[in-house]
């Protein structure tokens, strides 16, 4: 009988073959020998485990959860809408050109330029605000649709 037993860490090192200096104690101590045998079986069992292998395609699963790449250019739908608006307004101006000329020739030229400038300014600010709102909503949608942001 030995007064002080080996620590669990020392017995584990011996069981893994890392601490041969404890062989004398383990040979003479049934309690430590039993623990060493248990750790040897545990290590052998762990080493006998097959390496973990996924039974599905990991890359496809990861790619499915990645957010779509962001586009900096305007989306195609906006270009189509702008083109349609320009075509319709151009056609209307062409069809009603006689009336348009009559309206603007009757008014004072200074007043006409003030009206045109005001109209263009309002249209530009409205368009910019529309674009800003659209981008903000698209950003929110992309953030909510992505499962996890890293
Ligand atoms: Zn012992």
Q: What coarse outline follows from CA principal-axis ratios?
A: rod-shaped
Question: Structural class, judged by helices and strands?
Answer: mainly alpha
The largest pleated sheet is described as: none
Total domain units: 2
Give the names of the bound compounds: zinc ion
Helical proportion, percent range: over 70%
Q: Indicate the proportion of strand residues.
A: under 5%
The total strand number stands at 0
Averaging pLDDT over every residue, what do you get? 85
Radius of gyration: 40 Å
Report the end-to-end length measured between terminal Cα atoms: 58 Å
Counted by DSSP, the helix tally is: 7
Segments where pLDDT lies below 50 for 5+ residues?
A: none
What is the chain-wise order of helices and strands? HHHHHHH
Characterization of the model:
This protein is an all-alpha fold and 150 residues long. It has two domains: 41 residues, no CATH class; 88 residues, no CATH class. Helix content is 72%, strand content 0%. α1 crosses α3. The two termini are 58 Å apart. It binds zinc ion. The site of zinc ion has 7 residues, from α3. This is Zinc-finger domain-containing protein. It comes from Chitinophaga lutea. Keywords: Membrane, Transmembrane, Transmembrane helix.
């Amino acid at each position: 009988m030995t007064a002080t037993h080996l620590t669990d860490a020392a017995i584990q090192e011996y069981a893994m073959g890392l601490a041969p200096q404890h062989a004398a104690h383990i040979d003479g101590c049934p309690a430590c020998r039993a623990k060493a045998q248990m750790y040897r079986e545990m290590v052998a069992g762990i080493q006998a485990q097959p390496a973990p292998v996924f039974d599905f395609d990991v890359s496809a699963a990861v790619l499915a959860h990645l957010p779509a790449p962001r586009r900096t250019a305007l989306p195609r739908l906006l270009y189509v809408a702008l083109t349609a608006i320009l075509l319709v307004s151009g056609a209307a101006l062409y069809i009603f050109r006689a009336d348009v000329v009559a309206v603007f020739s009757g008014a004072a030229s200074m007043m006409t330029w003030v009206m045109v400038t005001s109209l263009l300014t309002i249209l530009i600010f409205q368009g910019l605000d529309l674009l800003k709102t659209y981008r903000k909503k698209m950003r929110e949608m992309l953030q909510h649709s992505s499962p996890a942001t890293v």
